[in-house]
């Protein structure tokens, strides 16, 4: 009898413990479902890194560094406002209500991609970029169009030679990829604007063959800028497509006039708005 009672006692205790464990486990599981623990490693949310345009917003002042060719130097600007760079400065100052400075405009008329690459190997250029909040640049137009050299043929030099532009495309794109990579490395916290190309000879190209080349260029450069969160390609082709004569400088039929530069500056300012 004693043995039987002892056996039933052990069974009873075991059953009670099992019941308690079941109830406790149920309560714990319910709590995890209804009130999940913030300490669970798979529920911890890591804050995203501050975006460059957000960094610009918190600065007390903004510094712009400009690079590239004559479009960034402001050639053709009859108003003498420094092309799109000077206008971007004015627009950002008005938008942000804080001082905006063009601390360095290192653009040189006639510059090609290999020359800008050489500049980016110089300490003075990389030091300037390191302090920039905004970087703007244009490069590639002189490589592809070469001021019209080889672009036109025929008795009156009015036939657009698309092959000349096409042949220059790939070699130049490789250099521009290196340029953008180096600028990002020198200025990883700044927002970098690459101003896309337009077709300056569209009115002399009835078959619009050069438009395809320009579009290939812009698409290829976009593939590079899209790798970096701080880099933006600013489209300009559409601005000039229907208003070419209105926005081109009458002196050379290549660079924007003051109205063309104003529209480019509008694009950049809108992106930072």
From TrEMBL:
Residues 66-263 form the SGNH hydrolase-type esterase domain. It comes from the Bacteria. Pfam families: Lipase_GDSL_2. InterPro entries: Ester_Hydrolysis_Enzymes (IPR051532), SGNH_hydro (IPR013830), SGNH_hydro_sf (IPR036514). This is Lysophospholipase L1-like esterase. It comes from Paenibacillus eucommiae.
